[in-house]
Amino acid sequence: MLITFTSKAASEVLMYKEHAKRILDLLHKDVDRGVITAAEAPHALQVLEKEIDESRQHSVSEDVERDVHAHHNEAGDDTDHEEIQVVSFSTRAYPLVEMLRAAKAGGHDVVWGV
User: Fold this and answer.
1) What is the pLDDT of residues 68-93, one digit of tens each?
2) d(CA 5, CA 34)
């Protein structure tokens, strides 16, 4: 399921619900419907930027590596699979962070699910 974030400050941002949930949980917001007011935007940006910085300090998790290696044979000569390509938290959050920056600058809210 997709979530559409809207604001008068920027173009719509579409995100899978499962990815938006992590971001909105950090902000203590409901994933189904909500608002980040212009007054809340600075704090929301601070929280997300801190999480982005922390996520950049950690490499691919062991769980992801284990899942990928489970699809390769034990001898390690299975060449039918591509290398691990992880979409980082910062990459997923970037469009919403940019929307929040524009909303903060313009004094607009960010809403979803309405």
Assistant:
1) 666 665 555 556 666 666 778 899 99
2) 10
